[in-house]
Specification:
8 helices; 27% strand; disordered N terminus
Length: 249
């Protein structure tokens, strides 16, 4: 890549570097050179970015990590392997990956890049699960930050959701609860998760989550079980139904 062709590092580039730092590259079945080519960046530049995250995690590496890398590390550094892999290496063979929250910190958008190699993801999640895992990761971040705009893009207008008290709410109710501060999440840590493909474009997720926060000013904390139904719409996957209940301990 000549200097005249240099471009800004995107958040997705940093997510890929963060993933390699934390989990290596064996689970995406690609070498570092192949990953760099897929991203459309130089191998040396990619290695340097991985070194940035090594330094940020306190294990040596470079000492001048870019502001964007620091922000990505702070925001996405605690995601699970499956969640981070879904964001960093979405299925490039079907459609353009969904935009990632925070992409604007990388500056002006760069032109879409056609991947120069296919990534065959291995491990606990199949290739067709990756878009859902990416949306689940985005949902977790939106819940923690109370990002109503992000939640609006993740929840379908036809949502029917049953809360732990048995009350049935819709999208407007859910968004207002976060907008008003009636619901505030301080911990959302997913554990065991099952994905069931019910039909083309319809996926059920059942996940155990450790939650902490406040509801109507009262604190809550403990394990909960979510069931979410995701449906693929023209603008991406959205939650159309679900349920949450406390797990007895």
């Amino acid at each position: 890549m000549h200097s005249s062709e240099r471009r800004r590092w995107t958040v997705r580039d940093d997510l890929a570097a963060l993933y390699v730092h934390r989990f290596g590259h064996a689970r995406v079945a690609a070498s570092l050179a192949e990953l760099a080519a897929w991203l459309g960046i130089e191998l040396g530049s990619f290695r340097m970015r991985v070194g940035n995250f090594k330094a940020l995690s306190g294990h040596g590496g470079l000492g001048n990590a870019a502001r964007q890398s620091r922000e990505v590390f702070a925001r996405y550094g605690q995601l699970s392997e499956a969640e981070l892999r879904a964001l960093a290496f979405p299925d490039s063979g079907k459609r353009r990956p969904p935009d990632i929250p925070g992409d604007s910190i990388a500056g002006p958008a760069t032109p879409d890049r056609a991947p120069s190699c296919s990534l065959f993801v291995t491990g606990e999640a199949g290739m067709t699960d990756e878009p859902i895992l990416a949306r689940e990761a985005e949902l977790r971040l939106a819940m923690l930050s109370g990002d109503v705009a992000a939640l609006d893009g993740l929840i379908d207008d036809a949502l029917v959701f049953t809360g732990p008290d048995g009350a049935v709410v819709g999208k407007a109710d859910d968004l207002e609860a976060h907008r008003s501060g009636r619901v505030r999440m301080t911990t959302v840590e997913p554990g065991e998760r099952r994905l069931v493909h019910l039909a083309p474009g319809v996926v059920m997720v059942v996940v155990r989550v450790e939650l902490a926060g406040t509801f109507d000013g009262a604190a809550f904390q403990g394990p909960y079980r979510y069931t979410r139904i995701w449906a693929e719409r023209p603008d991406g996957w959205r939650i159309v139904g679900g349920h949450v209940s406390a797990i007895a301990v």
